[in-house]
Amino acid sequence: MQMSYGVRVTGPTKLAGKYERSGALNGMPLYIGENGQRIWFDQGLERWCLSESEEWQFTAQAVPGVQEPPRAGWEAPDESWGVVPPDAFQKAALSVSPAPSCSKGHQLRPDVRTGHSCDLCRVSGTAFRCPDSGCDYDLCAPCHAKTLEELSSEARPIPEDQLAELLAKLRGKDSAGNDVVYRRFKGASLQEEWAKMGKSMGTAEDFWTGCVAKLASSMQEAAGFSHGVLLETEHPYSAKRFSWRKVVQLKTDALEVFFHSRTGLAF
After folding, report:
1. Nearest-angstrom CA–CA distance, 112 and 96
2. Which of 154, 166, 195, 198 has the most crowded Cβ, counting Cβ within 10 A?
3. Considering Cα of 160, then 161, then 164, then 165, what sign does the dihedral take?
4. Per-residue pLDDT for 34 more than 90?
């Protein structure tokens, strides 16, 4: 009778499933998943690696004297949390300004709700809403405009010393050797550092969204779509009857939308 050794992974969909032992690599067991995923030991890192492709995605510290992957302690690489070029990060830092937000500091997003009441004037019908699913805060268009005007006098870039401190903690090289700013890097995180600046600067999520927007803008300009708006959708769609709505504001005299069926992008 031949024994079969395997492990089962739960977690991210692309990595979940049963892994069967398939020989050895670097003197340790090699496991292959049902869809080609791999678990193996990297001698250079001295850690177990788990991935769906040639590039590792999660790693875990090896247990001394144990030739099996650990059942806990797996960590995602810092790069997986998000990176942007330093130029995009610095441009976003120069344009930070307070914006209408809920009591928790989440900046409101365009979201028309005819049956909701404005949290300031109580009028029925709102145009902006907190994007956090656990928050129920709405503003009508006039109250949002008034609040935005009141806050505009407080607009200011991130002070140079604070920006330098952020870059010192979050700047590094990515896996390809490019100079980038990480969202989480070597124990430091934008979330924790941003909280030190106070609610008047908005949230770390909103600032990071601004960084990505600056990057997208530069990429669109380089591609010749400087006046376009990029909308992100799920792709491939989860179901044929899937419906999706996105509210945008465009300053334009005319509008043309081009939807790329293979990438899920609209220009």
Report:
1. 25
2. 166
3. negative
4. no
